[in-house]
Amino acid sequence: MPQYKAPLRDIKFVMSELLDSETHYSKIPGGEEATPDMVDAIIQEGAKFCEQVLSPLNQTGDQEGCTLKDGEVITPKGFKEAYRQYIEGGWPSMTAAEELGGQGLPNSLSMVMSEMVGTSNWSFGMYPGLSHGCMHTLEAHGSEEQKNMFLPKMVTGEWTGTMCLTESHCGSDLGTLRTKAEPNSDGTYSITGTKIFISAGEHDMADNIIHLVLARLPDAPKGTKGISVFVVPKYMPDDNGNPGERNALECGALEHKMGIHGNATCVMNFDGAKGFLIGEPHKGLGYMFTMMNIARIGTAIQGLGAAELGFQGSLEYAKERQSMRALSGPKNPEGAADPIIVHPDVRRMLLTQKAVAEGARALIYYAAQQADIVNRSNDEAERKEADELLSFLTPIAKAYLTEMGVESANLGMQVFGGHGYISEWGMEQIVRDARIGTIYEGTTGIQALDLLGRKVLMTQGESLKRFTKKVHLFCKEQADNEQLKDFIEPLAAMNKEWGDVTMKIGAAAMKDREEVGAASYDYLMYSGYAVSAYLWARSADVAQRKLAEGTSEESFYTAKLQTAQFFFKRLLPRAKAHVEAMTSGADNLMDMPEDHFAF
């Protein structure tokens, strides 16, 4: 397993040079505390924790996995101790409100920590990671009594949280869920039902686990309009706010999974468990999307992490592994063969991983800044603009980046050749761990329908125009910059094409609604390449300016520029194939009768 090394220089590049985080933080309430010195200190300490504590547990946690005994889950050796250090470091409380005992720092800063934690040990990171969405949902929609009862200890990390949505028969179609909520005489509710795929649903790392559970009241209408959300603790808090009586819920089984073995994925049984209604009846799905949207950006980080960790492992191996000679002549004449990094196809794989990881970092941090504005700005118009932009970017970040992360993880394994297939090297674990990213928190297909159907077509293209206008202005500003010509011309052309293909699909969908579903996957992937192209062009602009000014880091900025060139020349052309596919019509998918699928 590659020993994780936090890519601090590139993190600094994206935060400070590409996205100007210093100015960004100075403009949002509470952001003034995030001075460059403080930000640097936080990231340095976070990197040290991830490199020295979490990374060594990544492979051992995968090999040992979690165990279930008498309804209690035992996490892999070292996880519980690492979580204690995580709490002592103050990491769970970093962005929580000060009145709740948090540090009040911007949420985008926590995304940097989430990246480092997730890349070094994704299984571990899921335990505290899911708590953030749970806390946000309670903070946004819970009563004052509920907030006082649960949030303080969740902020410190003493208690963790989950979201309990899926049931065995419904998957992502939550309108058919069956879990029941019966009113009690004291104003609470008895929750009965079984939820599956509940990450961190039971474990031994925290004193209490707070579940957010979707369920139906007796008078609930059918479908998604009849869903309510309840907060259901593992232990009922006593009068002093400490864990008291055990609630009527337990982990009935652990799922046997392809990857993320160090994280407990549970079947949770609620047998008349006491719960508290959050907000109004029948509005639970809307409330839950507060949590889901945060989880989707968090899942996008998994794509970044898979690409980054895979790249770190395959780069080191490619420099050391010797096989064959370079086609242009020996590069290591004293050795029996040349290191494989001299071969063009190995470089193709390495550069793809590098471009995906660095491009993903830019997209996630960019989205995180929009979330800062939504959560903290005092300017209502600015909040609305950022919220709509974030809503547009979320399905792209979640689906495109996890798809690219899986590809990158597979390339990392491929660089190792036969050794990549052997577990000792740890590369196949990255593939197994990454694979779930395209599935949970809404599959790629669901994200694609959300993007094209809800975010673009249902807004008559306004959400798309909001982003393409930013791209257009950037291209206009750089139109006379000869050094950026190779980036600006294809970006401007793609930006126009994006609008054109959207109109074509929209017109087709007016005649046949199946056209939306038929085009949606390719539309999402095209959109991912387009957004990435914009951010890579901006990165190239920064690198060009730094090189022109003169810098002691010439190799870094030259590499950034060369990686941008690789993206535009080798990866961006894939978008043309997506245009051909998405505009080919629904007939080639829908005309075949079901019985013709037989074998």
How would you concisely characterize the structure shown here?
This protein has 599 residues and is α+β, with helices and mostly antiparallel strands.
How is this structure best described in words?
With 599 residues, this protein is an alpha+beta fold. Among the domains are: 288-450, Up-down Bundle (Butyryl-CoA Dehydrogenase, subunit A, domain 3), CATH 1.20.140.10; 452-589. It is built from 18 helices and eleven strands. The chain has helices at residues 8-18, 21-27, 36-64, 79-88, 107-120, 122-141, 144-156, 284-320, 344-376, 380-415, 427-435, 444-456, 462-477, 485-511, 514-549, 554-571, 574-582, 587-590; strands at 67-69, 72-74, 159-164, 180-183, 189-199, 208-215, 228-233, 235-237, 243-246, 249-254, 265-277. The strands form three sheets. Strands 3, 4, 5, 6, 7, 10 and 11 form a seven-stranded mixed beta sheet that branches. Helix 8 (284-320) runs antiparallel to helix 9 and helix 8 runs antiparallel to helix 11 (427-435). The chain is globular. The relative contact order is 0.09. The model has no long low-confidence stretch (mean pLDDT 96).
DSSP summary: helix tally:
18
Percent of residues in helical segments?
55-70%
**Largest sheet, described in full?**
7 strands, mixed
Segments where pLDDT lies below 50 for 5+ residues? none
The CATH homologous superfamily of one domain is termed Butyryl-CoA Dehydrogenase, subunit A, domain 3
- The run of helices and strands is HHHEEHHHHEEEEEEEEEHHHHHHHHHHH
What CATH first level of one domain would be assigned?
A: Mainly Alpha
> Architecture of one domain, according to CATH?
Up-down Bundle
Number of strands: 11
What's the end-to-end separation, in Å?
Answer: 41 Å
> Which structural class is indicated by helix and strand composition?
alpha+beta
Rg from alpha-carbon coordinates:
24 Å
Please report which band the strand proportion falls in: under 5%, 5-15%, 15-25%, 25-35%, 35-45% or over 45%. Answer: 5-15%
Mean pLDDT, all residues: 96
Might you state the CATH topology name of one domain? Answer: Butyryl-CoA Dehydrogenase, subunit A, domain 3
General form: globular
